[in-house]
Specification:
The complex is a heterodimer. By secondary structure, chain A is an all-alpha fold. Chain A has helices at 11-25, 34-60, 67-85, 89-111, 116-136, 138-141, 171-192, 195-205, 207-212, 217-243, 253-266, 271-294, 302-316, 325-331, and strands at 154-156, 164-166. Chain A contains 14 helices and two strands, in the order ααααααββαααααααα. The longest helix of chain A has 27 residues, at 34-60. Chain B starts with a helix and ends in a 17-residue tail after the last helix. The chains are: A mainly alpha, B mainly alpha.
């Protein structure tokens, strides 16, 4: 039939469409302040980040602790190209995407053959190196002084004889962010249902079984890591053009941790769960940012809550608030028997 | 100049080694990267300062008490956070470790504030700052000598404990095969918890030494030191205690020389770079056995 009929939608589908419409008309309500829109945009940006990161731990079962590195690469790619070459944002999105993917491949190809915890620590080291590079290469990034004056995106129709319209205020960013989230979600669903996604799930569920089915582990893991990195970079490119100021401090480990926490909370591997995780944690973060100074505590302390959330989730609901069955079965305590007899490095002192 | 850098590197390297053995021992017994280990190191320094300023203890008494407290913290960490996840997939334990690390770091921020703190004035023995030996243009203070001999004694003691004592034997047994160790009557959980205590005590001692050496402590100090020590453990071959000691010293020297001759801006970067390169090229490290690429569920 092809035509969308409301009656044919499932209940969940109706709720989702309703939510989308609500989100779309949100800025029209008079009681929605710029601050509220700002938070909403932040939520959307973290949704893209969380959806991108989700590919690695959620779809492939690998821990990536350096996601903020790609986010930073994307942000500085966007910022520098805007300042030095005045590129249009619509051109920067694919460039940032490709640059993120490039670094994903460069880092992933040699390291993804390692076991999971080594991979985690390498990604961590990588993101720290990115921050050090951004801080120290002053000729390029202005270092700790930051990169100010990044022009906002604009829609230029002058080549058609139309107007040139530059983004001002939060509303255009709001709709751009929604658009980017929708595209990301669409891509994620398509990947999830594709051959690629099925290969990833096979790897996540049982690597040995996956190999016996002819799946090239390294090949698929590198693709996963590259796509994940690319989405991180796209979120970064948006961030740069939105806040119009970048500094290396914005790309510290905390950000990786926050995004990881969203995934853990929402449910690893669950696209909707991850988005809910982003909503909950960004809101919580903002609420704590208001409350903590009243209690005389520094705002960084809100990470205490996030750390606790992660520990508690792993203890009691390791597959997240919205678990998908495969992950839930996998993460359940006692399901996996570690083979202690295997010759790991720790087997002999 | 070169010799001075070398000496500085050896001193810091010894401290890295003390933290690194903690990582390596814990990895050895439960195959977990204990990200929160750096936080124990940070707590060690803060405990010592607190004991000095609130209980008025002399430096060495505070040092000892703080090590004991860190050992207890390590045990709590294991019992509360990791023990319930013994049978869970590795990803769960790793995420818990990161969560605990962030939690402890921010807890310290609440308790002691986020600003840098010095050791209370006059608490570190005055003769520590005095030059003890001078040779070839290198000045060695008493503090250098104390750090150096302390690390040496600790490492030697640790080595003997693991090799010669009954308890060390139990620990090695658990590292080799938990099921078999349990079958011959070893209380596996207790051995693991004691390993955490030992690692915690050493990490805490390292924290006090660094805090007193640079005369500054701050809640995020464990974060960088933890990663560097982990890099040292990887360099030596994770799971291997002598490897961690050698790795720590090599890394300390490389860092001091690199900062002196290449670029001091990338001082921290040297450790990360060494770590990444070692992991990619020789994942087994210098002393480790080759890690078999087995199925590491999630």
């Amino acid at each position: 039939m092809g035509r969308l009929r409301i009656q044919q939608l499932s209940r969940g589908g109706k709720i989702r469409i309703g939510l989308l419409i609500l989100v779309l008309i949100l800025p029209l309500f008079p009681f929605i302040s710029d601050y509220a829109l700002h938070i909403a945009i932040l939520i959307f940006m973290y949704m893209i980040l969380a959806l991108g990161l989700n590919i690695v731990p959620g779809f492939n079962g690998l821990l990536d602790l350096g996601y903020v590195g790609f986010y930073g690469i994307g942000a500085y790619t966007s910022g520098l190209l805007t300042i030095h070459f005045g590129l249009s944002y619509w051109l920067i999105i694919p460039i940032a995407f490709l640059n993120g993917a490039l670094w994903g491949v460069l880092l992933g190809a040699p390291t993804l053959r390692l076991t999971g915890d080594y991979f985690a620590i390498v990604t961590f080291g990588f993101s720290e190196l990115v921050v050090l590079f951004l801080t120290n290469e002053i000729w390029l990034t202005r270092g700790p002084l930051g990169l100010p004056g990044i022009a906002p995106p604009s829609i230029d129709l002058s080549w058609l004889g139309g107007p040139k319209w530059e983004f001002a205020g939060e509303v255009p960013y709001y709709y751009l962010a929604i658009l980017m989230v929708l595209v990301t979600v669409f891509v994620m669903y398509r990947i999830q249902d594709s051959r690629l996604g099925r290969a990833w799930f096979a790897i996540r569920d049982d690597e040995i079984a996956a190999v016996s089915c002819g799946i090239n582990l390294l090949h698929y893991k590198v693709i996963a890591f590259a796509i994940s990195a690319a989405f991180g970079a796209v979120a970064g490119s948006f961030f740069a053009r939105w806040v119009t100021f970048l500094s290396p401090d914005m790309f510290k480990f905390w950000e990786s941790f926050l995004v990881l926490c969203m995934i853990v909370l929402g449910g690893m591997g669950n696209i909707w769960g991850v988005m809910v995780g982003a909503v909950v944690l960004v809101s919580l973060s903002e609420i704590l940012r208001e409350i903590l100074p009243l209690l005389g505590l520094p705002v960084e302390v809100r990470f205490l809550v996030f750390g606790l959330i992660m520990v508690i989730m792993m203890r009691f609901r390791p597959a997240g608030l919205m678990p998908i069955p495969a992950v839930a079965a996998k993460m359940k305590a006692g399901q996996v028997k570690r083979k202690p007899a295997v010759a790991t490095a720790g087997s002999k002192k | 100049m070169f010799l001075q850098q070398l000496v500085n590197g050896l001193i810091i390297g010894g401290i890295y080694a003390m933290i690194a053995v903690g990582y390596t021992m814990i990895y050895g017994v439960i195959q977990l990267i204990n990200f929160a280990h750096g936080e124990i190191y940070m707590l060690g320094a803060f405990f010592a300062v607190t004991f000095i300023s609130f209980l008025g203890l002399p430096f060495f008494a505070a040092f000892l008490l703080s090590m004991i407290c860190c050992a207890i913290c390590g045990m709590f960490l294991d019992v509360l956070a990791y023990r319930p996840l013994r049978e869970s997939p590795r990803l769960a334990a790793l995420i818990t470790a990161i969560g605990m690390s962030i939690f402890l770091q921010n807890l310290a921020m609440i308790i002691w504030g986020s600003r840098q703190k010095p050791f209370p004035h006059g608490s570190v023995p005055a003769y520590f700052g005095q030059i003890a030996v001078t040779f070839g243009g290198v000045n060695l203070s008493w503090f250098h000598i104390f750090i150096f001999s302390f690390t040496l004694v600790m490492m030697l003691g640790l080595h003997l404990t693991i090799k010669k004592t009954r308890w060390g034997k139990a620990m090695r047994a658990v590292a080799q095969n938990q099921t078999m160790a349990a079958l011959v009557g070893i209380n596996v959980n207790r051995v693991i918890t004691y390993t955490f205590a030992l690692a915690g005590a050493l990490g805490g001692a390292a924290g006090i030494l660094v805090g007193a050496y640079y005369n500054s402590l701050y809640p995020t100090m464990g974060y960088v030191a933890g990663v560097k020590a982990f890099a040292a453990a990887v360099l030596g071959g994770i799971g291997s205690v002598p490897g961690a000691m050698v790795g720590g010293v090599i890394l300390g020297v490389a860092e001091a020389l690199g900062a002196g001759y290449l670029s001091s801006l990338y001082r921290d970067g040297i450790s990360y770079a060494v770590m990444i390169i070692v992991i990619i090229l020789i994942p087994a490290g210098l002393f480790g056995k080759l890690i078999k690429e087995t199925k590491k569920s999630m």
